[in-house]
Each structure stands twice: as C-alpha cells, then as structure tokens.
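Reopening this ticket.

The earlier resolution said the output was attached, but the attachment link was broken on my side. Pasting everything inline this time so it's all in one place.
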Amino acid sequence: MMMVRKSKGIGERHQKILDFIASYQREHKHPPSIREIGEYCDISSTSVVNYYLDQLEKEGLLERDRKISRGMRLVNNSPLGDMLRVPVMGVIQAGEPIPIPPSDFNPFTAEDTVDIATSLMPSKEKGKDLFALQVQGDSMIDAMINDGDIVILKPAQEARNGEMVAVWLSDKNETTLKYFYKEKDGYRLQPANPTMKPIMVKKSEPLEIKGKVVMVIRKMERMN
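Inline output:
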C-alpha cells in the first residue's frame, strides 16, 4: 500500500490521519468517521480530530462536507499528476521457474494495488488494461529487475523477439519472466543473468504469453 504524498505544511499526525483515511476508504469503500479517526490516531477528543481535519482542508489535502456523516474526500495533490491504480495479480518467477498456481494471475483482493503517476507511464499504455506482478528471483537482474520489484504489464498473447514477457508454461504449471525469442524449432526464454541458462520450449509444448512488461517499480521506490 502506497502512502498519500506528504505536503510540506503538515506534521506526522496529519500524515497519519491522511494515510488512515486512504486505507480505510480502500477497504470499506467509504470514509471513516471522526471517532474512528480518533481511535486509530489515539486522539480522545473529536474536536481535536476536527481541528486536524480543518488544517488538512486548508492545506488543500482534504475536502469536507459537514452536512453529512463521514463527509470527507482526499484530494489528489501529487505533483506528478493523476494516478493510475493497477491491480497486483500475483507473483512471477525471475529465476528457475517453480510451480505457481495459475490462479496467481487472478486478483487477490481490491487492496492489492499499486498507484502509478500517469505522467510516468508510456503514453501509448495509459489507457490499457494493465496489471502488475511481483518479481521473485534474480534472472532479470541485468535488466535492472530485482527480487521484490513489481513489473507493470499489458495483456498480450503474442510477442516480438527481444520483448520481456510473463509466460505461463501450462503443462508444468509454471510461470516465469523472461525475454522472448522465437527459434526455428520452438521458443527461447532468455534470462538477463549470464549465470543462468535460457529455457527452451519446443513448438509441441504449450506456452502462453500473459503480458508484456511496460514498466518496472523498484522495491526501494515503493518503500519511500
């Protein structure tokens, strides 16, 4: 879960309130009550909670409607512009493929998402039905993809030589992240790690391309 971007004019308690409102909204599909915010932030007085909310409103981080219960809405204040929410569909091996249920390509819950600034996305991919997978292993380390990173993909069933793809080897019930190459006798799934050998797939063996990588989110970036 990514935190709401912090404004220079607010303190740690303000930030805690913002993050709680964001996480509560994602889980319950509506904002928290004043009392719930106070309980989470160890504030016993609802008037003190209102004081903090008023300050957040003045900072332009929150919109409030005092005529209705739970009348508040977070304002997107990211300097990067509009954010795109991408579902994290599961785990992908970047190493020797190991058995992973194909259900890992299905969403876990509504909370398993990553927020990406649309200004950072390749322009031709902004409107696509994107999904994300968390990387395990280091076979793509020379492509600057490390264990724990998240790759953003667009759905695809075909790929050109040299494109990085998520592949499901259905007969083995295995998934892997590799560079794709079409060979004379089949397919070569090439790692970006000189210590690892490519995976050779014969034409007679089933191979399903699930998506092409369009963006990588580093593990360190997500921790900030």
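Reporter confirms the inline version is readable. The mean pLDDT is 80. Residues 73 and 212 are 35 Å apart (CA to CA).
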